[in-house]
Design a protein that fits this description.
DUF4345 domain-containing protein
Length: 184
Amino acid sequence: MLRQLGVDAALSAESRAGGLPSALPGRDLLDTPALGISPACEDALILKEQLMIDPRFPLASWFLIVSGAGFLIVYALPLLLAPLRWARWFRWEVASSPTDLTVYFGRCLGGVAVAVTWAALAAASDPEHHVIVFDLIAVACGLQTLIHVDGAVRRTQPWTETVEIGLYAALCGASVAIRVLLLT
């Protein structure tokens, strides 16, 4: 919290020089006088919370936004809403009469994927204080890489799933690199 206030104090100096509006939306939600926060510092704090890209860690923010939004659109929502259609798009053979269990597992995986992408998008504005999201992405993508390698070796998956090995490995590596090199 003190470190955060230090950043906000630096931003408040910029606000005095650059002229942030004195009444930003949400100002009345904080009891800043009780916290000992000056109005100028409060303006910077509110403005920083409204930014989607953290100016201190733009690469981390962009990684979370691009990977989160892309995964949400291509994988998470289609799996949640129409798992068998998603399977056909990715060249899986779908039985003429799929079981309820197949649809159930697909939708469950889609629900988990939506939750992970939501966490990534929510963390984008302040990645420094949400490093656990990078760990979550690294573990999830690492496991997906291993699962897809196993499917490729055993030849039990369509070629589209084998191509995803590179995608998951790259996301895992990028998440670990951002976490270790930028955020620690």
